[in-house]
Amino acid sequence: MILSRLKPAVESHKFIGGGKSLPKFNDFLAKRDYTGALTFLEFKKANNSDVEIDLWMGYCAFHLGDYKKAMEIYKRIYNNDKNAPNIAYNLACCYFYLGMNDESDKLLQIAPPSSHVIRLALHLAQRKGHAGAGGDSDIEEEELLRQHQRLHDSLPDQLSLAAVHYMRAHYQEAIDIYKRILLNNREYLALNVYVALCYYKLDYYDVSQEVLSVYLNQYPDSAIANNLKACNAFRLFNGQTAISEIQNLAEQTSVHSFGHDLVRHNIVVFRQGEGALQVFPPLLDVIPEARLNLVIHYLKDDNAKDAFELIKDLSPSVPHEYILKGTVYATLGQEQHSVEYIKAAQQCFQLVGSSTSECDTIPGRQCMASTFFLFGQFEEVLVYLTTIRSFYFNNDTFNYNYGQAKAATGNYKEAEEAFLLIEDTKLKSDSIYLTNLARCFIMNKKSQRAWDLYMKNERKSCAYKLLQIIANDCYKMGDFWYSAKAFDILEKIEPTPEYWEGKRGAVVGIFQGVIANILPKEMIYDAIELIAKHKQNPQAEQILRIIKKWSKENGLNI
């Protein structure tokens, strides 16, 4: 998050209301050693019940990232003395960081007015609007605007405004504010981290690393900065490189250390979702990305229902949220054959793909392709996919969709090439992949490969569909031998007139191929074997009589 947790949310004297100084304690604070400070206070409290000590204990616990402990301390003070210095505000801060938005909001309503209260109300309004709380986005947007108008030109207010811009994906606006402040305050090195965060979100990972190094050179042990450095490494290189950047930080952070949750969250991402179900759920209301990453994990695990439950109440505010919500609706819509969900997915994709900011980006073009894909307009799908194919030539998911679109428009040669580029075993065992590839083989005069595909998958649920495609498509292409074999098996499974007629026609086609010297004469024996099972059928008897007569005339021993 953009909000700094390394510095007090308000000045220290605001927490204690001005009072006795604790020289040794101040030494701990100067070093930002909140663990040492808290230990000192706990020792002090053993012989002193002064509320001032409790306030400082809450302060230290908060800055250690132990918001639950801080909340318990402040709640105890609040219940005993609601007029303790800034107690309502401090408790509201804890609720905010614990994701308890309603509780935080209630306390802010009764907290004494101050610039701190205004800033927290602004962040709360942003968060509630982002999560779609209350179900009325217009009211939430109005509340955010109202809180925005209460800000002044003070440094803390401008930093809060930049943070809200960041959370709303207005990264360039946030950068402008930070750079303006840095021009006159070069010593505010932490702002370089915020600028680097914005560049990271804009996909300028190299620039982000460069800006970040300004801060890391001075504070090499910073949790936030090292975490961002690892994230840049993940984008620029791979998950293993990212983990090597963050490993030391992960080992050093305790359960209540600042940044502990963020580090745990990101290590799961770097490891491609390993441990997601243990790490992400408790962080859903703490780290915004945790909800989105858990949705992605569910989708990868073919669990569209749980993904839907997590995202259905989210009101998207940035492109990647619209894309993810659209993907969930499309997946569940196809599973449940829901027209309503498919339409919702189309709307999400179209909003991104047609927006002026995204229409010429790769994700924007993918979204427009997805929109037309769901409409079944595959010519339009290819218009968009073709323009970005060079970026995804070896991407299995892209080739899967590209191959389907090519096959749907009758370009079976390129469809086959796209399908054969796919290496993912899960995709290659998918029934849609298998049936499409079989059709491509047949249309490209490779019926033997289609038959081999069936034989390899004859025990799978898609085997029946593969047989139907081989039977009918081979018939259309004049490859009657494989058509006849497929119809023969289909007839055994389900003895219907349709399958008998198909087999009968295919056998006649084999016979014609032999007569025309297109097929070897020996194939007559196979044709006879297929039709001989139906001796009691007048049509079969007539076909057999004609074939035998021709065979005898042409020296074949039947």
Which descriptors would you attach to this protein?
71% helix, 558 residues, disordered N terminus, 33 helices, Serine Threonine Protein Phosphatase 5, Tetratricopeptide repeat, mainly alpha
Give a concise summary.
The chain is mainly alpha-helical.
SSE layout:
Blueprint: H1 12-16, H2 23-30, H3 34-45, H4 51-63, H5 67-80, H6 87-97, H7 101-110, H8 115-131, H9 137-149, H10 155-167, H11 171-184, H12 190-201, H13 205-216, H14 223-236, H15 239-252, H16 260-270, H17 276-279, H18 288-300, H19 304-311, H20 319-336, H21 339-353, H22 362-375, H23 378-388, H24 396-408, H25 412-421, H26 425-428, H27 431-443, H28 447-456, H29 463-476, H30 480-493, H31 497-515, H32 523-531, H33 538-553
Helix pairs in contact: 2-3, 3-4, 4-5, 5-6, 6-7, 6-8, 7-8, 8-9, 8-10, 10-11, 11-12, 12-13, 12-14, 13-14, 14-15, 14-16, 15-16, 18-19, 18-20, 19-20, 20-21, 21-22, 22-23, 23-24, 24-25, 24-27, 25-27, 27-28, 27-29, 28-29, 29-30, 30-31, 31-32
Notes on the protein architecture:
The protein has 33 helices and no strands. It has 558 residues and is mostly helical. Among the domains are: 392-477, Serine Threonine Protein Phosphatase 5, Tetratricopeptide repeat; 478-558, no CATH class. Helix 27 packs antiparallel against helix 28. It starts with 11 loop residues before the first helix and ends in a 5-residue tail after the last helix.
